[in-house]
Amino acid sequence: MTSHLSVCVIGHVNHGKTALVRALTGMECDRLPEEIARGMSMTLGFAYRSYGTTDIDFIDAPGHEDFIRAMIAGASGAQAALLVVSATEGVRRQTLEHARIADLLGIPPCALIISKADLCQPEERNRRETEIREAITDTPFADKPAIWMSSITGEGLDLLHSDLSDLSRTAEPLLDPEGFRLAIDRVFSVRGSGVVVTGTLTGGSIGLDEDAVLMPAGLEVRIRQIQVHGQPTQTAPAGARTALNLRGVEPSAIRAGDTICKPGALRPSSCIDVKLSAWKSDPDVLRHLSEIRVMSGTRSDIARLHRLDRMPSSESSWEFVRLKLREPVCVRPGQRLLLRALSPSKTLCGAVVIDPAPPLRKSRRGSRLELLRASEGRNPIDIAPLLFDRDRGSASVDEVARLSCLTPALVKEALGPDVREVASGIVANENTIRVVETRLLQALRLRHAEAPTRPFLPLRPIREEVEKEISRDLVNTALLALTHAGLVRIRDSEAALADHDPAATLRPSDMRRMNRIEDTLKAGGLNPPDLGDLLQGLANGQELLDILLAQGKVVDLYNHALRRRVILHVGSLETAREELSVRFPNPERFTTGEAREALGTTRRIIVPLLERLDQMGCTQREGDTRTLCEPTETATQTKST
Description:
alpha+beta; disordered C terminus
């Protein structure tokens, strides 16, 4: 399969960029009547040429300062740049700005082209080249070999072809684990076909069967046709200048600067954290809360700049800033941006996206800066501990993945076995989980010491105290682990240490009262006294009853219709099951009324009693009737108790 490489041709207006592309490819980039009439490019021009198994797409960038946005849009998708300087005029204003923009966008320089060589006398060339190199000393093109070229005589053409052929074999493809992205630079309609968008494809290949979305709108689109270099194809590879014929979207819903991408690859955000990359010859400084223009790919937006540090140093030494945009944009970590002044319009500096969707909740500025610095290396092992610290012990896998430019699966693999999932998409360190377990055990011991006769403690105040420093997901995981380990018992919204024995601290008089309550319930059988009567005259009666419940000697039922608690001795529950099994052997069915008559009890008792037997698996209800079941493990345990 043919690979593709994009090369941007940049330089001052009328320095011969379009003529150079024409000489290289035989194609004319100026297509608008006004461009042809004025002899000046006003929009991006495109041409291509094959070098072995690689097609190089040449992007002819307008050189006039009025069209700098078009130049930036074209350069944003390029993998290399040719800087064109006229031999007759030398370095001019847009020569330097174009070179500066290429540097800030991280586009590798390919060659310095000194054009219009036929208009410079041979004896003048050394002096002219020295002047040009001195003028571009602070640009990446200063160390590149100069190629003297003439689109009239063809001088230098073979040498440039040779350099481009070498480049085609060594350039890295624009691949990304998140898949394809196409930053749209042109939108138009074709009669009979519908809307067409064009751009340089990055991230990966795209095929006709691919799912795609238009971002930042999030609209699903269907790809009706793909063209590369004007020819229909089933698949377009990364790096190719690509045209997509879309279905399912109106032309009015698309604008230059939008992105076609794989679903889930990008998400819109109105807030971006970036690291500034100033150009060393730039004398300008940025101001806190100032409005600037942000150029991202083929998109142009207005943002307010927020300084993230409080260092007393000068503003020119800023490191990280937050951009709050008027409209949501879609950028990815590591993407290069350009920041430009609104008036007068000029390039201020570059920026590298560190976090494309930072959390809006406030955090300590120092911790935020530390996280952003760690995120520059894109290593989950450096990023995750800082998120653990910020989020009280746990971290979002998606956030670690976003900051490290990896998939969630790769993040989990990189973090290793010492980090595990504590909730959906949330991870924590095993050592931290052990620490939280210890904290919970200590909290329960302390509360038990304060109320030793209480069999269970309200869990909410314990959780609230621990969750001041520990995330809720971690607390849930630790409680579940302690329960499974048999160290903690959970009952509804209460908890207790498994080895806590509230009866151990009772005075002899309290023990006698508690035994009397149990004896009364045992004697009452299936017609126990009302709860109020049972506890009447006992100051700590409810506390003693709770101990019996915790010991499993009595059971607590609830009649929902009457909204009343019913307390039975556990032996009465087992007796009822045995009597029902004798009176209604399986598979004989019985009603609630028949069970009440068989057991000689009241409706206040029989309804919650049968509901408890249903829960235990002793009976099975179907409509208004029930059948007895084989004794379950729960029923066996109840009987032994």
